[in-house]
Specification:
- This protein starts with a helix and ends in a 15-residue tail after the last helix.
- Helix content is about 35%, strand content about 15%.
- The chain folds into three domains: about 5-185 and about 220-400, no CATH class; about 185-220, no CATH class; about 420-595, IlvD/EDD C-terminal domain-like (Glucose Oxidase, domain 1).
- It has helices at about 5-35, 45-50, 55-65, 90-100, 115-120, 125-140, 160-170, 190-200, 205-215, 230-240, 255-270, 280-285, 285-300, 305-315, 320-330, 345-350, 355-365, 455-465, 480-485, 495-500, 585-590, and strands spanning about 70-75, 105-110, 150-155, 175-180, 375, 375-380, 385-390, 395-400, 420-425, 430-435, 445-455, 470-475, 505-510, 525-530, 545-550, 555.
- With about 600 residues, it is an alpha/beta fold.
- Strands 9-10-14-13-12-11-15-16 form an eight-stranded mixed beta sheet.
- Its cofactor is [4Fe-4S] cluster.
- It catalyses: 6-phospho-D-gluconate = 2-dehydro-3-deoxy-6-phospho-D-gluconate + H2O.
Length: about 600
């Protein structure tokens, strides 16, 4: 079925807008591809260094044959539960490549921080910039110019976007992203959230809170709520960079291992030496990014991807905007309820039919481009199939055509709501976004007086003192990328949730981020331009009446002569040092606005 005209219209305008970027990008990709397998251009001395650490088989395969050599970029570390399984992947990939006649080498490692550890702490001010560092580090690994294909091992928040930026930059190299899967279900997410609120009220102590958190985050694998990490995995399927059905298979299972082996074999099949050469620059075209945005809306994914998609696309020579996302949101149905949008976790979502059911539904309704290149072959219909393992052999079979649980997953013709889970907010404060899929309809419109803060700790102190026990829109400014790296303000969710449960009308407005765990409190986030850039948020005063309307997409200060007010300033010197922040001064000085992807590498208006 052809794609609907509304989707095609957005795609067409992205294509037209991107021509000055995309055409030179594709030209560079073709010139690099015409040079043939990269290592043929290496001198004997260069090649000796490439293979010095290899065993005899790999030395011969890399030096004297046309067998593919895979460069592995890994984000493994022991801190992230999601990345712990990657410890054993390189050896599995090497063994599989050898059995297929090729070779594989770890080309480089990239940093991978856990936002769950740094929430509300100074380290969070490095989080967003770590995306660009990851792209740079991956680029260093691939710069050895000795690889016919690349496999990227990464899952969590800024890591996948950073790796995609690197992959797109090395556009002529076929690239496959390899997930590790979510941890098995632990303490239900709604119970965890309730425990956090009880702690915020002072009803329980730290010991009880810690027990609940550890029962939720309990083993290797991705956290099971639908935050940025799992949204990243969805995105890699919708954009054709995962093998079909790979995203949500649990770690340490036979199927998980078989999928990693199959990804290795596929990487060797799509090199320039074979008959299915699939450079990643052709996979990541305008239609792929539109499909990614559609997946984000249909699943109610993380607000962080609104930033990352813009930056990722720019690395692919493509210019997308929040306006594109907003127009797609108006026509894409919300088909999934996964925490924080519902009670289910990603394991339950996967069991109910998961991405294969959802993609199939969107294709049937003409709401997804099928005519795309993917690492699995031509066409998005490959991603309606799910992997199965029989007698140790993996194959793909038709995925479900009916939801296994309509409280978790619904057809596109009878969705949870007719529009997507993310909404663009515009008005005299600039441009922001709100995740409406997690907010009850009766709480999507808030009009209340402002209380202005310049940091999270001041908000928490005011909450503890009872100063926020009223209808209030909490404004937290000087949290943008130029001010302090745009940290997530997720630690504000429990106290604001307590106020909401008391019956007050509560919302948050900020030029910072609220993370993939944005929940039941309406939050206008990523406000651009930011306060440190002289944005209108710097003009708000305590008591100003603000209207946040997630239904009509407006965010306004209802005050006379608001535009004529002076811009407030803040002492930001404390953001410049401690816990490594000194090293990121250059990033803060050159970073682009949130609406342009908040990137220091590809700053866009």
């Amino acid at each position: 079925m052809s794609v609907r005209s509304e989707v095609q219209a957005v795609t067409d305008r992205i294509v037209e807008r991107s021509k000055p970027l995309r055409e030179p990008y594709l030209d560079r990709m073709r010139r690099a591809a015409d040079q043939g397998p990269n290592r043929k251009a290496l001198s004997c001395g260069n090649m000796a260094h490439v293979t010095a650490g290899c065993g005899a088989h790999d030395k011969d395969a890399i030096s004297f044959t046309d067998a593919g050599n895979i460069g592995i970029i890994t984000a493994y570390n022991d801190m992230l539960s999601a990345h712990k399984p990657y410890e054993t992947y390189p050896e599995l990939i090497r063994q599989t490549a050898r059995a297929a006649g090729g070779a594989a080498q770890v080309a480089g490692g990239v940093p991978a921080m856990c936002d769950g550890v740094t929430q509300g702490k100074p380290g969070m001010e490095l989080s967003l910039f770590s995306r660009d560092v990851i792209a740079l580090a991956a680029g260093v690994g691939l710069s050895h110019n000795a690889y016919d294909a690349a496999m990227f091992l990464g899952i969590c928040d800024k890591i996948v976007p950073g790796l995609v930026i690197a992959a797109a930059t090395f556009s002529h190299i076929p690239s496959i992203f390899v997930p590790a899967g979510p941890m098995p279900s632990g303490l239900p997410n709604d119970e965890k959230a309730a425990t956090r609120q009880r702690y915020a009220k002072g009803e329980i102590g730290r010991d009880e809170l810690l027990k609940a958190e550890m029962a939720s985050y309990h083993s290797p694998g991705t956290c099971t709520f639908y935050g940025t990490a799992n949204t990243n995995q969805m995105l890699m399927e919708f954009m054709g960079l995962h093998l079909p059905g790979a995203s949500f298979v649990n770690p340490d299972t036979d199927l998980r291992e078989a999928l990693t082996k199959a990804a290795t074999e596929r990487a060797l099949q799509i090199t320039a030496e074979g008959n299915e050469y699939t450079p990643v620059g052709e996979v990541l075209d305008e239609r792929a990014y539109v499909n990614g945005m559609i997946g984000l809306h249909a699943t109610g994914g993380s607000t962080n991807l609104i930033l990352h998609l813009v930056a990722m696309a720019r690395a692919s020579g493509i210019a997308i905007t929040w306006e594109d996302m907003s127009d797609l949101s108006a026509i894409i149905p919300s088909m999934a309820k996964v925490y924080p949008n519902g009670l289910a976790d990603v394991n339950q979502f996967h069991a109910a039919g998961g991405l294969q059911y959802l993609i199939g539904q969107l294709l049937v309704e003409g709401l997804l481009h099928d005519d795309v290149r993917t690492i699995a072959g031509e066409g998005m219909h490959h991603y309606t199939k799910e992997p199965t393992l029989k007698e140790g052999e993996i194959s793909w079979v038709d995925g479900p055509t009916e939801s296994g649980n309509d409280m978790i997953l619904r057809p596109a013709s009878a969705p949870f709501q007719k529009t997507g889970g993310l909404t663009l907010l515009r008005g005299n404060l600039g441009t922001a976004v709100i995740k409406t899929s997690a907010v009850k309809p009766e709480r999507r419109v808030i009009e209340a007086p402002a209380r202005v803060f310049h940091d999270q700790e001041s908000v928490k102190a005011a909450f503890q003192a009872g100063e926020l026990d009223r209808d209030v829109i909490v404004v937290v400014r000087f949290q943008g990328p130029k001010a302090n790296g745009m940290p997530e303000l997720h630690s504000l969710t429990p106290p604001l949730g307590v106020l909401q449960d008391k019956g007050f009308k509560v919302a948050l407005v900020t030029d910072g981020r609220m993370s993939g765990a944005s929940g039941k409190v309406p939050a206008g986030i990523h406000l651009s331009p930011e306060a440190a850039d002289g944005g209108p948020i710097a003009k708000i005063q305590d008591g100003d009446l603000i209207r946040l309307d997630g239904e009509t997409g407006t965010l306004e200060v209802l005050a006379d002569a608001f535009d004529q007010r002076p811009v407030a300033t803040a002492d930001l010197s404390a953001n410049s040092y401690g816990i490594g922040r000194e090293l990121f001064e250059t990033f803060r000085n050159v970073v682009g606005p949130a609406a342009g992807g908040a990137s220091a590498l590809h700053a866009a208006d």
